[in-house]
Amino acid sequence: xxxxxxxxxxxxxxxxxxxxxxxxxxxxxxxxxxxxxxxxxxxxxxxxxxxxxxxxxxxxxxxxxxxxxxxxxxxxxxxxxxxxxxxxxxxxxxxxxxxxxxxxxxxxxxxxxxxxxxxxxxxxxxxxxxxxxxxxxxxxxxxxxxxxxxxxxxxxxxxxxxxxxxxxxxxxxxxxxxxxxxxxxxxxxxxxxxxxxxxxxxxxxxxxxxxxxxxxxxxxxxxxxxxxxxxxxxxxxxxxxxxxxxxxxxxxxxxxxxxxxxxxxxxxxxxxxxxxxxxxxxxxxxxxxxxxxxxxxxxxxxxxxxxxxx
Length: 310
Hints:
Blueprint: H1 8-26, H2 29-38, H3 42-63, H4 65-70, H5 72-92, H6 98-105, H7 108-118, H8 126-143, H9 155-176, H10 182-204, H11 212-241, H12 246-252, H13 255-268, H14 274-293
């Protein structure tokens, strides 16, 4: 598919939209922590966000019913994989530091390189091999705090890594599939996320079922985040990535990592060791190096959440 022709003004606006969407997702951890304080714990907060976003998602699904019906198999695997990615990512915040979640998830460009090489047989150059080495070196440092073995410390670390790996698969498959419209991916994200959020909540937080009082106290914030942040950022992202190059998209979406790390360092109270700081810098450099050394290709029709470029 060729990229649609856009004017310089559209390109600038699209670039701002993509960068803004990344920055919004970078501070996602903040409302999660506040909802926890209100009594809406862990996976139940994620479930509540999807419930609040359900009405507009159903409306969009109705409007895009023909497109979805024509691509029902693609829609179903997108719903499953996107639902897994986001629920793993969101619930990881409950069991590990904000820094770990952000950096372990942002290894996804490294996984995309390895998947493209060993699954699809694509050739990779020396520059991208260097990116893989830097990213994996950063992973080892991130996980070797206090001189321990460089292995995930708990389930939440594993979930953050798994979400990045699955996200890399989603991004590659979306690019290699036939044209998939923004509406199809949007509806798949919200419906798949909701269907999987409930079992995640029952498995991970069965002893923390929120009370009616907690739901009532938290619901205004849940609805505000879902309607004023989730929905606009998703649709702005889908609109923006169709109007700028993949390389520019990958660079602009680094605002997610930057805003997340900056706010976490300022507000989270989570300690960060020198290994985490250096490891995170290597992971950031690897992701940036990946998009800068990628071959310039047309942007895909639509890309969910964040974009991992080859």
